[in-house]
């Protein structure tokens, strides 16, 4: 079992917009070379976000001791107060700059839950000045989620240097990392995670026809179709938890990561870890925003049993 999760990645303000139609109603594939479209939004909300913030928030709800290591800007005060409300979160690893904005994410979601993102990096680029060696302790497990590409590679190498296991979640960084850095990061990870598009992109960039037959864990998230966990020749097909309603899919993947890790660091079976991820993700899609969901221990455990039957997490989850 691990004592603490150290989460690296971005902190951002998300500007979340949704439209009643489909992107396909506006985009002509044969005219993609001269694309010029505009969407009329049905809803708009500004929320707390960023990969490090989203994952850490749900880990906090799940009662996992978590240290956030990230960079933020001079407009971070309200976000900081929001995170400090969760007792198991340690925000002393967040570095705040007074000369630049916190990163800003802009997402448009259509009625089919397809998304188009734009991201202003802001203070995120200053993450490369942070060193993990100032924070790492025995018993830590590191999460390396999307971040400044230079910082991402640096955090990987520092984790390897200090023999600290890590989850590698490259996402939008896959095209921005050199093939050598991507290969090193994937090869040394305890867990590699991404959606089906991202996992396929990793395999193509690294010329992997099949996933490595080792004890390394590969997780492919499939949205509303659940997820697939592979380790060596073993495979677990994880069903989705049933949301009460689907309001906003933004951040569901980050919530899944938190749920999975909450079981993994407590040494639960991988199948149970995946189901914890599925349920945590379901809470997120029921709310606008990525850090607006809340739950208590009894409610979470009861809902876990309703969704997944006899498989129990009694004794393995303390939130």
Keywords:
319 residues, alpha/beta, nine-stranded mixed beta sheet, four-stranded mixed beta sheet, 8 helices, 29% helix
The portion of residues assigned to helices is 25-40%
Secondary structural class: alpha/beta
Helical segment tally?
8
Task: Let me know the average pLDDT.
Answer: 92
Tell me the strand order in the biggest sheet. Answer: 5-4-1-8-9-10-11-12-13
Number of strands: 13
In CATH, what is the homologous superfamily? Ribokinase
Number of domains: 1
**Which spans have pLDDT < 50 for at least 5 consecutive residues?**
none
What profile does the largest beta sheet have?
Answer: 9 strands, mixed
What is the radius of gyration? 19 Å
What pattern of helices and strands is seen along the backbone?
EEEHEHEEEEHEHEHEEEHHH
CATH class wording: Alpha Beta
> Can you tell me the CATH architecture?
3-Layer(aba) Sandwich
Here the CATH topology equals: UDP-N-acetylmuramoyl-L-alanine:D-glutamate ligase
Structure, explained:
The chain is an alpha/beta fold and 319 residues long. It has one domain: UDP-N-acetylmuramoyl-L-alanine:D-glutamate ligase. Helices cover 29% and strands 23% of the residues. The chain has eight helices and 13 strands. The strands form two sheets. The chain has a nine-stranded mixed beta sheet with strand order 5-4-1-8-9-10-11-12-13, with helices on both faces. Strands 3-2-6-7 form a four-stranded mixed beta sheet. Helix 5 (196-205) links the parallel strand 10 (191-195) and strand 11. The radius of gyration is 19 Å and the shape is globular. The two termini are 16 Å apart. The mean pLDDT is 92.
